[in-house]
Amino acid sequence: MAQKTSWDGAVLSESDINTYLMGEGGGWSTWTPTLAQSGTVTATVNHAVYGRWGRMIVAIFRLTVTGSGSGGSAVTVSAPVTAARTFMTCGQGGIYDSSATLNYTGNILFNSTTLIDFRLHGSGVAANPQLGVTGFTAGLASGDIVTGSFIYEAAS
Prior knowledge:
Elements lengths: L13 H9 L6 E2 L4 E2 L6 E11 L2 E10 L10 E3 L10 E9 L4 E9 L4 E7 L23 E9 L3
Antiparallel strand pairs: 1-3, 2-5, 3-4, 4-9, 5-8, 6-7, 6-9, 7-8
């Protein structure tokens, strides 16, 4: 349902108020994010939902890797809605490396208007992840988990 504006003689209904309070459409929508690390990496989508309130998008995802990626390359996830701008920090995320039993956590940012990537911290990441494409230097492998939550402005 499209956002409503006021007009002369308008009467708000209970349904209009509930839609406004609950967000556009009244609920979360699902999306199927694409996971990549120097090419598409197959993954099971455990959870991927987003809400839209006007141009504000709130998204949450959890992916379990079933394929493999290429070490030294950025880990990216497709966004549910095209963003208004790039290179902005918009949330938090992480990668669980199941073979090393290590968690890498850090910031999520848009590297294009359709893809997010990670600036991770901790043991096993690049010495200065702000200078590289990503702080996670290993290749994604089956059993790894990629998670995140982020908030951003949609392009339209």
